[in-house]
Amino acid sequence: MKTTTRLLAVLAGTTLLTQAAAAQELNALVWCDHTDDALIKPFEDKFGVKVNLKEYEGTGAALSLIEQSQPGDWDVLVVDGIDVPRVVSAGILGPLPVGDLPYDSLFPEMVMEENHVIDGQTYAISEKFGYNTVSFNSAAVSAEDLSDMTALWSDNAPGSMAVYDYYVPVMGMVAMGLGIPTADITLDDLPAIEAALMKLKDNASSVGEVVSSQTAIATGEVDILFGGGEWVTAGLTGDLPDLDWLIPEQGAVRWSQSIGVFADSKQPDLAVEFVKHVLSPQGQAALATSSCYWAMPANRMAGAMMTDEQKAALRWDQQVDYLNKADLYPTPDADLDAAMQDVWTRFLAH
Amino acid sequence: MMRFAACATYMALLYGFIFLPVGVLALFSFQDGRFPIPPFQGFSLRWHAEVLGDADLIAALLNSLMVAFASSAMAVTLGFLAARAVATGRLPRAKAISAALTAPLSVSYLVIGLGLLASFNLMGQSLSLATVAVGHIVINTPLCFAICAAAIGPAQQSAERAARDLGASELRVMWLVTAPMILPALLAAFLLSVTFSWDEFIIAFLLSRFDVTLPVEIWSLLRSGLNPKTNAVGSLVFMLSAIAVLGVELATMRRK
Amino acid sequence: MTAPIDINGLTKRYGDAMALAGVDLGIDAGEYCVLLGPSGCGKTTLLNIIGGFADPSGGTLRIGGRDMVGVPAAQRPTTTVFQDYALFPHMSLLDNVGFGLRMRGVGRSKRHAKAEEMLDLVGLAGAGRKRPAALSGGQRQRVALARALAVDPDVLLLDEPLGALDLNLRRAMQDELKDIQRRVGATFVHVTHDQEEAMAIADRIVVMNAGRIEDQGPPERVYRRPATRFVAAFLGEMNFIPATVQAGRAVTAFGPLGPKTDLRDGSRVAVCARPEHLFPGAGETLGKATVRESVFQGSSRRVTVTPEAAPDTTLRAQLPVGMDAMVNDVLTLALDSGHVTLLEDA
Amino acid sequence: MSKTLTIEGRDRRRALALAAPALLWTLVFFALPFGVMAVLSLWQRTDQGLEAAWTLANYAKFASSPAYLQAALNSLEITVVVTVLSVALAYPLAWIIAVELPAKYRRLALALAVVPFWTSYVVRSYAWSLVLAKRGVLNGWLGDLGLPLMDLANSRAATVIGFTHFFTMLLTLTIYASLVQLPPNLRRAAADLGAGPVQIFRFIVWPLALPGVMVGAFLTFALCIGDYVTPQILGGGNDLALPQLVMLQIGRRADLPMAAALSIVLMAAVTLAYIAMARWMKEPSK
Q: What positions does the domain ABC transporter occupy (chain C) (predicted)?
C-alpha cells in the first residue's frame, strides 16, 4: 500500500516538474512541415526558449489532442485554413495583433478574411498553401491522359493509381470533376460523389497518407497519385525528374494552412513572436521547402530567400493561373462533415 | 536421414521467413541513394550517420530506455509482491485475485491506451513519459506476476518458513530468501517487461506529448519523408538489442 | 509369452566415457533378473539398450534368438516400466493401460476388458475411470506395471520401479512383483541400487560396476561367495582380513583362516567374513577383542571390536539377541570357516 | 489494540497487504479506465465537445452501418487466418527445436527464432512493405528467377504476412515452452507400447501440449485483433480493420465516445474468443 502511495507521489511530482519547466517552453501543435531545425532553431536561439512540437494530421486529431489537454498546455496552433472558424467558435484561438503581421506581403488569395476574421477580430493568418490535384510519373503517363479528371474513375484508367487518404480535399476534387464547385457541395451531392469514389477505389491499388502516397509514386508502385500535388512531388524532383503534377481541366482543390495563438496560452507574447517568425521571409522559405513536404509560402517576400530551382519546383511563376483554376477546400458544416466522413469510411472499407 | 532432411529444410525455410524483413531492412539501410528500394545502388554509411546525428531520435531512444527500465522495475515489484501473496496460500479469494491481476493480458493495448487517455483527461492529468510508464506498468504487471507465481514453489515456501522460524522479519525473508531464490525468474520477468515496453507503440503514442519514445519517433519519421533513415534506425535498434540480449545470454551462461 | 536374452560383448561409449565396457550376459526365459550396482555403473544404460532406447556401440543383443540391434522399441517384444512411471496424465487408467493394445489396433471393448484384467492383477480393480493425478505413488507404480504388462511382453524391463516408494510399500511391492512375474511368466529385468531389494526378488543377480559385470548368479551364491571385493562390499557388510598364502592356507594376524586354497605361496589375499559369521565361542578363533561400539538392532546386536592380535583392524560382528556386550567388554570371537571366502587382492 | 489476532488471521492480512499494490494499480489504471470507456461509449460527440447523452446511438451506428460491420468482419477474418497460420508455422519449428534438435543447439535455435523481435515493431511492418512492394525485394528475386511477379503490397495479404511473421516468432516461444515441459519418458513409453511417430503425436504430444498452444493462440488472437500498426502500414487503406476504425474516430473526428464504443465491441470479440477457448478446454480431451 505504502509503495503505491509513494509511487503516486513520485508520479505527481514528475508532472509538477514538467509543468514548472514548461514556463520557458513554447508548446506548438503543428503539421509535420514545422519540425525542421531550419525553421525552429533560429527562433529558439533568438529567444532562448525551447519549442516543443507535437505533430498531428487532420483537424479532428488536433481537436481531440486539445480536448485531452489542460488549459494553458498549448501556445501555438497550425490548422487547416478552412477550419479556423470551427476552432475559433470552439474558443480555442485568441485574437492576433494584426499590425505586427505581414498581411500586406501575403498573396492576396491568402488573406482569406472570411476565414480568419470573425466579428472584426483576426484569429489566424495563412502561412502556406498548395493544391490537391494529380501527381504523376511523366515517364509512364502523359499529361494529356490526365487532363480529364473523370478518366480516373472511368473503366479504363490511364495508369496505376494511389489515392491520398484525406476525405476533404479528395471529395472536393471529385466534386469538381463532377462539375460541383466545392463551396456548393450539399448532402444531395454525396451519392454521386460516393459512386465516383468507389470507382476510383476500384482503379486504385492503395489509399495512403502523405508518406505512403509519396513512397508509392516515388518507387514506381503507382504512376498516378490522386489528391497529390506539388507537396508530394516538389521535394522529390531533384532525385526523380520524371515526377510531375498538373491541374486537370475541371480544376482542383486549393488547400492552405493557418497559424494562430491559443486563447488560453500562458505566454501569448512569445507565441505571437513565433507566428511572426514563421511568417517572416526566412521562416517562410524554410517552411516552403521543409523535409516533410514542400508547398508555396503565403508570404510573397519569401521568394527572395529561395533558389531558382526551388521556385521552379513549386511553379512560383504560374501561381496566378493555378490559383484561378483551383477552388478552396470544401467547408462542410457539422452534418455534411459527418456524412462525408461516413462516405470516406465506406470508401476505405470498399 | 529423410527426417533430418525434412527438419533441416523446414528450419531453413522458416528462418528465412523470419529473417527476410530484417535482412532487407539492414541491407537498404546502407543504400547509397534516397530510396530504400531495389536496386541496391552501393554502400554508404550516410543514413546511419544521420540517425546518430539526429537529436530527436537519440532523445527518444533515451526516453524509451528510461520508460522501459522504470516501468519494468515497478511491474516486477508489483508482480513479485502479488505472486508472494498468492503463494502463501493464505490469501482470501486468491483465485479471483489472480484472475483480476492477469486480466490485462487479454486486453488489446489500443483499448488500454484509450481508456487511460480518457481517464487521465478526466483526472486533469497531462500527458508525459510518466503516463506512458503507467500504461506500460499496466500491461507488464500481469506478465511479471505470472512469471513470479510460476517460480515460487514449495522449495521457497519451506525456506521462507525456516527463515521466519529463525527470526527474520517479513521484509528480510523476502529480500534475503525469496528474491534470491527466484532471481532467474525475476530477471526473466524484468527483461521480458523491458522488451515489451521498448517495443510498444500504441500506448506510448496515445499517452505521450512532446517527449516521445523511440517507436513513436520512428512512426513520425515514417510519415515525414521517404528515405533509408528509417532502415538505419531499425537496424541500429536491432543491433543494439541483439547485443544486449546476447550479452545477457552470455552472462547467464557463464554463471552456470 | 517369454523369451531368453542373450548379450555378447556389448559396449556403449558416450564420447570418451565408456558406459558399458563389454558386457556378456545370458538371461533365461522366465527368469527374474536384477541388475544391481551403484549409480553410474551402467545398469540403466544396459536396460535402455535392451528396451530399444539407446544403440549399443558394439556387441550383440538377442531376445528370443532374434537380433535386436537397430530394432525400435515399438517392435521389440519388450516393454518398460519407467522410473517416473511416465503415465499419460490426460488419460484415464483404462486408457493408459489399454494404450499399447490401442496401438496394436485392438477394439475398444476388448482392450478395456484386458485393461480391467490387468488393473485387477495389480490390485487396482475398479479404479479404471480415475486419472493418474488421483492416485498415490504406489498406485501409479501399479498402473505403470499394468500398462507394460497389458501387451503381453516377452520381456518386462523395470527401471528402479520402486525407487520412489517408502520402505514399507517397497517391501510389499517386492513380494507382489515376484508374484506377478510368476503368474505372467515373462522374463523380468529389473534395475535397482538397493541390494536388499535385489536379494529379495531376484532369481539372478547381476552386479555391475564401472560398465562391467562383476558377478552374476543366484542371490545366495553371490552373497555368500562374491566373486570380487566390490561385490562383497556392495552386497551388505563384510570384514576383510588381510592375509598371505602359505602352504595352501591364508595366514592372517590371527593365524591361518578360511578354506584351503590353490594360490601359490606369497599371494596376498583377503579373508572375507560377514558380521553374522563372527561369533563368540569355538571355531577358528580370532582371540580376544575389545568392544568399541555396541548397537542394539532389534533382532541382533551389532558390535565393533578391536582384536588384540591386530590392534589396527576393526571388525564388525553381529551377535544374537540376549547376548549383552557393553563398550570395553572383552569378547573372544571365532569364525565359521564354512562361510568364509578368500579373495585375491587386486 | 485489545483485539487478538489469530496466526492465520495475521497471515491473511499480510498476504492481502502484499497483493494490495498490484491490485490497486490494476484497479486504478486498468479497471477504472475500462469503466470510463464503457461510460464514454454511451456519450455523444457534438460540436461543443462531449455530451453525456446516455444513449446507445454509437452502438446503433456500428450495428447499422455496413462499413463498420465490414471493418469488424475484416478484423475477425484477418485475425482468425493469422492465428491459424501462425500456429501451423510455429508448431513444427517449436517441435524441431524442442525434440529433434540436440540439446546443446536448442537455446541458440530458439534465440535465432526470436531475434527479429527486437527490430522495433513499427519498423518490422515497414520492412515488410519494402519486401512486398511491387518493385520490392521479393519481386526482384522472382523477376531474376523468371517467375511471375506477385502483387502483395497494400493488401490484406500483406497485413496477414506482417502479422504472421510477428506471431510465428511469439508462438514458437510459447509452443516450445509447452512442448519442452512434457516429460520425454511419456513419448518413450508410448513408443515402447508400439506407437509410431504419428500416433505419439496424436495421442500424447498434441493433447498434452494443447492447453499451452491454446493459450498462445488466444494471446495471438487478442493481440492481433487489437493491433493498429500492421494493417495501417501494410494494408494500404484497402481493408479497414477495427483498430484503424477506432483510430479514425479519434484522429479524424475527435469522437472519443464512438472510439470507446468500438473498443468495447473489440473487447467483446476477444471475450467471446476467450469463453470459446475456456469452454473448449474444459471439455474432456476426447
A: 5-235
